[in-house]
Amino acid sequence: MRPFAPQLSIQGLLLAVVASGALAGEFESRSHQCPHLPAARLEWASHYRACPLPGTVTLADESSQGFAWAFPLKCITPAATENNTAPRADCLFTSTSFRNGHGISLIASAITTSHLIGMGSFDDAPLPLAAQQRLSLGPAYKIVPVEGKGMGVIAARSIKRGEIIMTDHPAILIGTSFLANSKPHHRRRVLKQAIRQLPEATRKKVESLQRGKEEYEVDAILGPNANTVLLGEEGGGQVHVGLFAETARINHACRPNAHSKFSERRLTMEVMAHRAIEAGEEITMSYIPITTPIEERHKYLKEHWGFDCTCPLCRSSKDAIEESESWRRRQTSLKSTIEDARKQGFYEDAITMSEEWLQFAEWDMIPPLAPEFQDSLVDLYLQNGDMVNATRYARMAYDGWAKFGSVDDEKLEDARLMVNKIDKINEEKRQR
Fold it and tell me: From CA 411, how far away is CA 395, in angstroms rounded?
């Protein structure tokens, strides 16, 4: 099974693509250079049709940066429409060296791919100290048969609340424009090649995943196992489908003990613990947004994954289930009210309600990451002029992100900048 990325089901998406029979151009290889734009957010240029040459892709600033692809590129160009006279191509890019030989096959536009190269998503970086310390503890999980569920993920040792359990990389990333605009037989042909071009160890992991009931092999692999993630271009993140072969082994629970976050900057999925997990305990995540009402959860799980949920929460008493549902309804209501209070400048009210929201999350055993919650309080206290608490929570958040040890240091850097900002404000006040 696979964890759900909110608001889009790959299985539903693939079925929709098959049903739509969208037009597409012929499957072909491009041998000409694609225009590349500077790093960071690329200019939106949906009219570009060309794919980068096989081999080194050079950025527009003509720097020495580049990225070598392992195979000649294969591209599909959708048929032109009245409103899209020159649609851009989606191409298959494969690196067998990505993340120390894990490898990746990316089916996306040249613009998206250039964006990822420009922001360093394919680059390897030293592990943060906290991640190195985690490695010294030994593996946190193992993938084993789980009764009634096929394969699953079990804690191999005690895991602390908020600890990163798993760091996984995508074997395949697929743009939804490719899925929506390519003919089914073209789509399957490219997807088969994407899997074939992966390094052997990663390819075997993909091919060993639990299959869905779809008629064709690639659809049966992707259907129950893929996540949706956002990869950025100008104008906001674009939805892509990602296959993370180890994360896909994590089974569902309506009150999970873990959740995941995807980093575009590092092309990494990190799974972290909601609460302390004992050795031998199964690691679970929710396939659907945690605040989805129970009737909708059960219906969605049955329709899209074909099983009736028998997780511990669903097996508990009606009173226990209703208590959990009431806590989640209250969290949803509070979240909306907190945002309204923030926008209207009622910062004290927002702080009080944030503490209340956290209490409900604790009761339901699905609390947020501590530094994530502390970040939200820093801004509220700062806006409210409470520099004592703003300073306190800013330092707590910075320490929390440092101990968290994500491979993506963006949150840590943001916290560091916030501490510096608050220190500067405090210093200016002292000098008055």
Answer: 13
Of 429 and 168, which is predicted with more confidence?
A: 168
Query: Which residues are 153's β-sheet partners?
Result: 143
pTM of the model: 0.83
Residue 2 Cα distances to 123, 156, 227, 332, 392, angstroms: 27, 20, 7, 25, 38
Distance CA 302, CA 307 (A): 5
DSSP secondary structure code for residue 249 in this structure: G
Domains of the chain: 10-127+135-285 (2.170.270.10), 318-430 (1.25.40.10)
Q: What gap in Å lies between CA 328 and CA 361, rounded to an integer?
A: 8
Which among 251, 249, 247, 256 is positioned nearest to 312, based on CA atoms? 256
The CA distance from 432 to 429, in Å, is: 5
Could you tell me the pLDDT band of residue 81, with boundaries at 50, 70 and 90? low
Give the 3-state secondary structure of residue 350: helix
Both structure tokens of 99 = 């993340």
Closest CA to 102 of 41, 40, 172: 172
pLDDT-above-70 percentage for the chain: 81
Residue pair 179/17 in contact (Cβ under 8 Å)? The answer is: yes
At 376, which amino acid appears?
S
Given a cut of 50, whether residue 55 has pLDDT beyond it is: no
Tokens describing residue 183: 């003919």
In this structure, of 179-183, 256-260, 351-355, the range with the lowest mean pLDDT score is 179-183
> Which H helix or E strand runs over 398?
helix 387-404
Distance CA 93, CA 52 (A): 9
Distance, in Å, from the CA atom of 139 to the CA atom of 33, rounded to the nearest integer, reads 44
Average pLDDT over residues 23-42: 30
User: 121 pLDDT band (50/70/90 cuts)?
Assistant: very high
